[in-house]
């Protein structure tokens, strides 16, 4: 990581000049003077004050009749009494943890208004400082160019705007000019040539992109020592321009500009001691010319695109004190010649691609105070010579591949203040003695290593750290007691440290400076009543219980995910969180109950709210729409109602996840105009109805749309092709949110998406995922061919709807990785263009009316058969071969009803026909209609004889089935429930049986869903034809759908699965030597038992209950059927006697 906090030191030769002005100020300010200020100057100052805006009354001492030399900000000359200096800069800014009131007081202290020309009366004014005020974008007054006595003018960061007045060039005595940090511009710097006495010139942040003369003009200034031109939009100067070499320039800052190469004219400035070219776009190798700058003391080239190795000539610049090459693309190794940089105190090579080991010669840099090589590819062990760097204060080797045990040399660095070796491969045990000499240590960062630290319980660390990060160390199982002595602790990370304990009472009161605490991924238990942490708390994935803790008002991030906190949100949200600071709140995956309180309007700074996976109820409170949310997650609760209109105020919302609740109503039309930044919209598994609003099509940044498992009706809008982020890469975003202003950790937006048939939580890669899921609704009509233009879409799921027509050829032009069109009413062939879907790894078109041959491609033939079942398809991977003739005509139109539900009724009619025709019609007349009984026995016996002869030829397994004059007791066969566990053929047979039953169960579920959708569609059409409103029509359709689903469920429960079991039992009895009549009765008993047991089991335990209930019910029913068989044999015998010999003769002589 680039060490941005270290500022470039100024050359020593410049210090006398910089110290001159403040020293002079203090000398004059504190001198005793018996002279009163000049009357005319006092009047001029009062006029100047009257035009200023002074909200905090800073200038209250400026009173008429009082000595102006005693006024705030005024310095008079010691002998003449003339006003010599005017210093009106405010006090320094509050720190980052200041309250809103403190910030408001600071902003009120800034002077504003207009600057009166009365200042011209101050003829002897030599120093004017109006910096860091707020003059609300007014122009710099031109009369400043008439203040001829000025030697010091500081207008920096005072909110001036517009062109720089060229008459400032008239100030020939001016030695110090600072206009930096304003919104100024200048098309030419020719006016600067008049500043003949200038030694310090700062035009930072001024737009000088059109000032092509800046080099020629500034280098002509004979006395210029320091030139600051950062953030000026400067571009490369043509090499043809003649540049005069400045002999006086010592410091040159051209950082944060647009330079693509190091200007060659820089190397003609032989007096330069400091060069800052950081944050430009410098490319290529580091120029050799730097080898000629032997007097260079400061070289800052960080944050560019330099891509060479570190050149050897840099190692010869033995006067270098500051060298920063961080955040480039430097490669190769660090040469042992680095030991020649004998004067270097700051060496930063971080964030490059350096490899190899840290050379032993690093120990020769006796003056080194800062050493940074983080985020490279360095390996090996840290050299022991590091222990010789007695002046080293900052050492950062994090995020490399360094290995070995804890480096013992660290213990010799007595001056060390910051030690960071996190995210490496160090391992082993760390002993407390290793820290015995680190008495000045304030920052210890060593997370993500495989180290174990278990000091003696009485150990008192010799240091007082402000930051300790030991994440993934093994510190447990007890909570580290030695932390009790860290009274200055500000930031602590002991996440994933194997701690299984209670948090001690003293912990959260340990330090008044506690800003950041990360205890996540441990096994910490118990309750927490109060979190005394100023900034950020992460307690993710522990075992904390009880009500939510109270927090202090400055808390900015609170993450309590995946614990067992319970109770209400009211106390925390309404009475504890602060409107000034709170930005991120994660309380997902807990046990929260009750309603979400309606008191969010005071949390204006809230950016992320995640309350998913709790047991919250009620409606979305309207006040949530008065926050500044970027991410709202209420997934998997029990909330209901519609979307409140106040949500349209969340104009910065990127992710909205309301899935798996009971929300209802229409999807609001204002979603496009007000929530235009949406990237993820997930409303899956709710009760939303109505149509898909066309306004969704205008969400140009929408990458993931999930409306599945609702009651949405109508056609798929053609305009979905306008979703730009699904069509063009440039509209896609990878949103991240910074954890805290003082930390570099990022919270990546995440969303739970159903892709490729499975549910995954996408976070870091969310910006790379694009999906559309409209499955399990009641959408009708054809698939719009316009969807084919969404070439950046990776997952499309339209399954479980009522879509008709052909699959558009345009779908094959997409770059889909997942496509699911199953369980619709699509017809025609699979388009040949699907052969172009080369990235497809999940595909399903089952249960439609598709016909013809499956197109040939590497992908389409790689899927299992179930991806194509329930159609009339042929060709690989199916075993059904395609005939040479054309495919049959569209099956969907043959005998279809107005609702178009052919496939469902085809299967249902086959099953019902089998049950009613065989088990019902054949059996009932046997006992109740005499003539039918005669014909039945006649036919049955002759069929039995024929079957017997055939079966006996294949295997002598069956006995004679009819004509016997005695009662035949039942033969149960040899296969029982226990044979399912023989780990052989029996186990395989049972597994196949249960698999078929589960398969039939899924068919039944699909049938019920389709019946529901058809009923809803018909009811909706009827309701609309009656003139009902869309809302009432949707309600009526929903009611009709539920009724139809219930009826279809009741019918289907009596149909499919048990037939499989009964057929199994029938053949099993016959195979093992039983009679066909015995198999008949056992199969019938199994059928009825499976129906009853399956129905009861499903009501209690769902799908699992269906499997268990049908199995046990079928088993018991089969046994009962065998008992009935014995009774039936007796009845059969009695009937034969009753019918007499004539019937017996017919029975014997009849032909089949």
TrEMBL record:
Membrane-topology descriptor: Single-pass type I membrane protein
GO cellular component entries: plasma membrane
Signal sequence annotation: 1-31
Presence of keyword Transmembrane helix: yes
InterPro entries registered for this protein in UniProt: Leu-rich_rpt, Leu-rich_rpt_typical-subtyp, LRR_dom_sf, LRR_N_plant-typ, LRR_R13L4/SHOC2-like, RLP23-like
Disease resistance R13L4/SHOC-2-like LRR domain residues: 294-495
PANTHER family attached to this UniProt entry: LRR RECEPTOR-LIKE KINASE, LRR RECEPTOR-LIKE SERINE_THREONINE-PROTEIN KINASE FLS2
The protein, known as: Leucine-rich repeat-containing N-terminal plant-type domain-containing protein
Organism expressing this protein natively: Gossypium anomalum
């Amino acid at each position: 990581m680039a060490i941005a906090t270290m500022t470039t030191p100024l050359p020593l030769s410049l210090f006398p000049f910089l110290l001159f002005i403040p020293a002079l100020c203090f000398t004059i300010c504190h001198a005793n003077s018996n002279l009163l200020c000049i009357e005319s100057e006092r009047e001029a100052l009062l006029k100047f004050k009257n035009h200023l805006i002074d909200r905090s009354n800073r200038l209250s001492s400026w009173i008429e009749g009082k000595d102006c030399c005693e006024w705030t900000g005024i310095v008079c000359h010691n002998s003449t009494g003339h006003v010599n200096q005017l210093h009106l800069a405010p006090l320094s800014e509050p720190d980052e943890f200041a309250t809103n009131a403190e910030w408001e007081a600071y902003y009120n202290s800034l002077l504003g208004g207009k600057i009166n020309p009365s200042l011209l009366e101050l003829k002897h004014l030599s120093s004017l400082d109006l910096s860091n005020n707020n003059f609300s974008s007014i122009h710099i007054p031109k009369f400043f160019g008439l203040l001829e006595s000025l030697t010091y003018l500081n207008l920096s960061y005072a909110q001036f705007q517009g062109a720089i007045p060229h008459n400032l060039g008239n100030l020939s005595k001016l030695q110090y000019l600072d206009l930096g940090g304003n919104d100024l511009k200048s098309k030419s710097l020719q006016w600067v040539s008049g500043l003949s006495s200038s030694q310090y010139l700062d035009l930072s942040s001024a737009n000088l992109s059109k000032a092509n003369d800046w080099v020629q003009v500034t280098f002509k200034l004979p006395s210029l020592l320091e030139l600051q031109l950062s953030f000026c939009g400067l571009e490369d100067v043509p090499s043809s321009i003649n540049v005069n070499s400045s002999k006086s320039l010592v410091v040159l800052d051209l950082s944060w500009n647009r330079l693509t190469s190091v200007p060659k004219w820089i190397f003609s400035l032989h007096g330069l001691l400091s060069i800052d070219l950081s944050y430009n776009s410098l490319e290529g190798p580091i120029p050799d010319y730097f080898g000629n700058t032997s007097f260079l003391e400061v070289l800052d080239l960080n944050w560019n695109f330099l891509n060479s190795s570190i050149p050897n000539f840099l190692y010869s610049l033995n006067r270098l004190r500051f060298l920063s090459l961080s955040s480039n693309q430097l490669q190769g190794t660090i040469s042992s010649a680095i030991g020649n940089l004998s004067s270097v105190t700051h060496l930063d090579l971080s964030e490059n691609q350096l490899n190899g080991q840290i050379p032993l010669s690093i120990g020769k840099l006796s003056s080194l105070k800062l050493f940074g090589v983080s985020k490279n590819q360095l390996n090996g062990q840290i050299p022991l010579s590091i222990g010789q760097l007695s002046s080293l204060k900052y050492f950062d080797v994090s995020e490399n591949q360094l290995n070995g045990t804890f480096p013992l040399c660290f213990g010799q660095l007595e001056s060390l203040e910051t030690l960071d070796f996190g995210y490496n491969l160090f391992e082993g045990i760390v002993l407390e003695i290793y820290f015995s000499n680190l008495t000045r240590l304030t920052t210890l960062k060593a997370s993500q290593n495989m180290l174990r630290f278990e000091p003696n319980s009485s150990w008192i660390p010799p240091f007082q750290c402000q930051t300790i990060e030991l994440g993934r160390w093994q510190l447990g199982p007890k909570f580290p007691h030695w932390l009790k002595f860290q009274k200055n602790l500000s930031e602590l990370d002991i996440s994933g440290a194997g701690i299984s304990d209670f948090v001690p009472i003293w912990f959260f009161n340990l330090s008044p400076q506690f800003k950041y605490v990360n205890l996540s991924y441990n096994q910490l238990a118990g309750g927490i009543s109060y979190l005394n942490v100023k900034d950020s708390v992460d307690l993710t994935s522990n075992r904390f219980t009880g009500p939510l803790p109270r927090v202090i008002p400055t808390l900015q991030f609170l993450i309590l995910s995946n614990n067992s906190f319970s109770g209400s949100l009211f106390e925390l949200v309404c009475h504890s969180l602060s409107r000034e600071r709170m930005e991120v709140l994660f309380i997902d995956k807990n046990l929260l109950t009750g309603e979400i309180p309606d008191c969010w309007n005071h949390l204006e700074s809230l950016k992320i709210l995640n309350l998913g996976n709790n047991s919250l109820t009620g409606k979305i409170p309207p006040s949530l729409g008065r926050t500044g949310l970027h991410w709202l997650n209420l997934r998997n609760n029990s909330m209901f109602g519609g979307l409140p209109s106040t949500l349209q105020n969340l104009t910065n919302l990127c992710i909205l996840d309301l899935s798996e609740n009971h929300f209802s109503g229409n999807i609001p039309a204002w979603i496009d105009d007000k929530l235009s930044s949406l990237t993820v919209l997930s409303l899956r598994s709710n009760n939303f109805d109505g149509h898909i609003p066309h306004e969704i099509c205008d969400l140009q940044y929408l990458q993931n749309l999930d409306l599945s498992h609702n009651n949405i009706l109508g056609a798929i809008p053609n305009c979905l092709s306008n979703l730009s982020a699904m069509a063009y890469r440039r509209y896609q975003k990878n949103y991240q949110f910074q954890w805290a202003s003082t930390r570099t950790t990022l919270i990546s937006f995440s969303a739970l998406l159903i892709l490729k048939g499975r549910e995954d939580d996408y976070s870091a890669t969310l910006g790379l995922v694009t999906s559309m899921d409209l499955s399990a609704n009641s959408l009708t009509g054809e698939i719009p061919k316009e969807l084919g233009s969404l070439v950046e879409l990776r997952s499309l799921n339209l399954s479980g709807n009522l879509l008709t027509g052909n699959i558009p050829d345009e779908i094959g032009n997409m770059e889909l990785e997942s496509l699911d069109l199953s369980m619709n009413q699509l017809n025609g062939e699979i388009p040949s263009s699907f052969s172009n879907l080369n990235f497809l790894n999940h595909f399903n078109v089952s249960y439609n009316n598709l016909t013809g041959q499956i197109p040939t491609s590497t992908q389409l033939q790689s899927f299992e058969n179930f991806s194509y079942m329930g159609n009339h398809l042929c060709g690989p991977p199916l075993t059904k071969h395609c005939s040479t003739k054309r495919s049959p005509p569209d099956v969907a139109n043959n005998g279809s009803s107005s609702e178009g539900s052919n496939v469902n009724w085809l299967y249902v009619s086959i099953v019902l026909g089998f049950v009613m025709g065989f088990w019902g019609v054949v059996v009932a007349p046997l006992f109740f209609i005499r003539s039918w009984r005669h014909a039945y026995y006649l036919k049955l016996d002759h069929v039995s004889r024929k079957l017997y002869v055939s079966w006996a030829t294949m295997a002598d397994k069956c006995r004679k089935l009819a004509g016997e004059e005695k009662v035949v007791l039942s033969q149960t066969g040899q296969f029982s429930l226990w044979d399912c566990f023989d780990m052989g053929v029996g186990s395989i047979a049972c597994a196949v049986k249960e698999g078929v039953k589960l398969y039939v169960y899924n068919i039944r579920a699909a049938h019920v869903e389709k019946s529901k959708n058809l009923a809803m569609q018909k009811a909706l059409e009827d309701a609309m034809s009656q003139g009902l409103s869309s809302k009432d029509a949707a309600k009526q359709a929903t009611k009709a759908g539920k009724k139809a689903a219930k009826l279809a469920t009741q019918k289907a429960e009596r149909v499919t699965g048990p037939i499989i079991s009964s057929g199994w039992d029938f053949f099993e009895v016959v195979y093992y030597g039983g009679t066909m009549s015995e198999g008949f009765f056992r199969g019938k008993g199994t059928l009825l038992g499976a129906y009853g047991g399956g129905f009861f089991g499903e009501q209690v335990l769902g799908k699992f209950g269906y499997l268990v209930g049908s199995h046990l019910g079928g088993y018991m029913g089969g046994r009962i059927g065998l008992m009935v068989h014995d009774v039936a044999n007796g009845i059969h015998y009695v009937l034969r006697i009753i019918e007499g010999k004539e019937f017996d003769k017919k029975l014997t002589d009849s032909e089949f």
